Amino acid sequence: MGAKAIQSLKPIKRIHAHLCAFHFYAHDMNRQVEAHHYCTHYNQDMRQCLIYDSPEKNARLIGVEYIVSEKLFQGLPDEEKKLWHTHEYEVKGGILFMPGVPKVAENKELDEVAKTYGKVFHFWQYDRGDALPLGLPQLMMSFTEDGQLNPNLASSVEKRFGVSFKENAEGRKHITGPSMGIHPSSNPWLKGIGLKPELREVDLKEKL
Amino acid sequence: MGQHVCTWAIFSHDMSRKIETHHHVARLNEDFCQCAVYDSDESNARLIGVEYVISEKLFESLPDEEKQLWHSHFYEIKEGLWFNPGVPELVQQQELKSLAKTYGKFWCTWQFDRGDRLPLGPPALMMSPQQVEPGRIPDEMVKTRDAKYDISTSNRAVKRETSIEGPASFHPLSDRWMTTGKGWAVDLKEVPIALGGSTPLATLDAAQPHP
C-alpha cells in the first residue's frame, strides 16, 4: 500500500530481538503471564520493549518494559529502584528465551540481559478475562528462583515453542548476574512488599 | 501493517504539560487499534507509552468508572493536529473518518518532558487536545511541528471541516476534566504481596547484601 512505502516508522524498524519470558503482578504472585518482548536498543545501556501476549499477528499489545544496565540502575533514586526487578534467574534458570534463535547467539545476548534490571508495566489484564485494556497500569515483577513459576504455564510454553527450560539452564551455567550482586532495593516482593496501583483525583491548576 | 500518526497529548494530572507524540498505530479490527507511542519519529526515539483506540460502540460498553480514563479524538483530528506524515490526505481520509469517532486511553511511561533521563515512577494518564483550556496546543508548538514537516495544520483543518464528521454526541464521562476540572494521577501503594501456595513468606531469601 502507498502509505506503508512513504511512512517513516524508524523506531519500529529498529526492533532487534524477540524475548519470551514470564511476569507476575507486583502485588499478586499467583497471577503469572507469558510475555513476549520486542526490544530495541535505545542506547548501549538501555533497551525498550513492547510486550505482547503472543508472537502471533493478532497479538495484544499488553505492556512496556525498560531494561537497563547495572550502571544505569545504580544511578536511580532508591524510591525508584523498588519498581525494578532482576533478570539473572530468568536467564540462568532457562525460562527466558529467544524463540527461533540458535543457542550460541541466544546465549550471547542473554549473557548481557542477565546483568540487567527491568521495569515493566502491563495495561491489559487479559489473564482475568478482560476483553479490553481496563483499569490501572499494573507493575509487574519476575522470578528469582526455581519453584516460583507455575509448572503448567511453564510446560505450556515449552511445548508451544519446542524448548526445554532445563536444557536452556544447562547451557547457561557460565552466565553471571550483576557484577555488584543483586541490589537489595530491587525485587521488593522478596521482602513481602507488593506494589499496587491506586487512582487519585487532582485539582487542575486554575491558570497555565 | 502500521500507521505513523503525529499529534499531541496532555498530562491528566498537570495539563500545562503538553507533548508532541508519534504513534505507531496497529489496527486489530474495525473497533480497535493499539499504539506504541514515541517522542519522535527518529531512530533514537524514546518509547514513551501505549495508547489504545476504540470505536464508539466499544466505548459505550465500558463500565462508567472506566470511561473516565478515556479521551475523545474528534477535536484533534478536525483541527489537523493529528496527521500522518508523508501520507496524502486523500489516502488517509477513510481511516480518519473512522478515527474521528473513537476514544483513546493513553498511559505515558516516560515523562521525558520534565527532564527524566530514564523512565521514572508509575505511568501517567494522558488526555487529548480540546477546544477549551487547558486542552489547547500552543501555536508555537504547532508552528514548530509544521516547519519540521513542511505542512500547514490550519490548511488541513479547513479541508477536514467539511470532510470529517464527529460522533453523534460526546459522552460526558470521557475527557472528564472538562466537566470536573480535575485530573487523574496513579500512585503505587505498598501492600503485602499475595504469594503462590508453594512460597510461604518464611522461606523467602533476603536479597544479596550490597557491598
Of all chain pairs, the largest interface belongs to: A-B, 77 and 81 residues
| Proportion of beta-strand residues of chain B | 25-35%
Could you tell me the number of beta strands of chain A?
8
Strand order of the largest sheet of chain B: 1-2-3-4-6-7
Overall mean pLDDT score of chain B?
92
Radius of gyration of chain B: 20 Å
Task: Tell me how many strands of chain B there are.
Answer: 8
User: Which of globular, elongated, flat, extended, rod-shaped describes the shape of chain B?
Assistant: globular
Order of SSEs of chain B, N→C? EEEEHHEHHEEHHHE
- Outline the low-pLDDT stretches of chain A: 1-6
State the secondary-structure class of chain B.
Answer: alpha+beta
Question: How much strand content do the residues of chain A show?
Answer: 25-35%
Q: Order of helices and strands of chain A, N to C? A: HHEEEEHHEHHEEHHE
Instruction: Give the integer mean of the pLDDT values of chain A.
Output: 93
The N- to C-terminal Cα distance of chain B equals 49 Å
Radius of gyration of chain A: 18 Å
Q: What is the domain total for the residues of chain A?
A: 1
The largest β sheet of chain A comes out as: 6 strands, antiparallel, barrel
Q: Report the total helices of chain B.
A: 7
Question: Roughly how much helix do the residues of chain A carry, as a percent range?
Answer: 10-25%
Provide structural commentary:
The complex is a heterodimer of chains A (208) and B (211). Chain A has helices spanning 2-6, 10-13, 70-74, 78-81, 88-92, 103-113, 151-161, 165-170, and strands at 17-25, 28-43, 46-52, 61-68, 85-86, 117-122, 138-141, 193-203. Residues 1-6 of chain A have low confidence and may be disordered. Chain A has one domain (16-175). By secondary structure, chain A is an alpha+beta fold. Chain B is an alpha+beta fold and 211 residues long. Chain B has one domain (3-180). Chain B has 7 helices and 8 strands, in the order E-E-E-E-H-H-E-H-H-E-E-H-H-H-E. Chain B has helices at residues 56-60, 64-67, 74-78, 89-99, 139-149, 153-163, 177-180; strands at residues 3-11, 14-29, 32-38, 47-54, 71-72, 103-108, 124-127, 182-192. Chain B has a 6-stranded antiparallel beta barrel. The longest helix of chain B is centred in the middle third of the chain and has 11 residues, at 89-99. The radius of gyration of chain B is 20 Å and the shape is globular. Chains A and B meet through helix 1, helix 2, strand 2, strand 3 and strand 4 of A and strand 2, strand 3, strand 4 and strand 8 of B. Chain A: InterPro entries: OBAP-like (IPR010686).
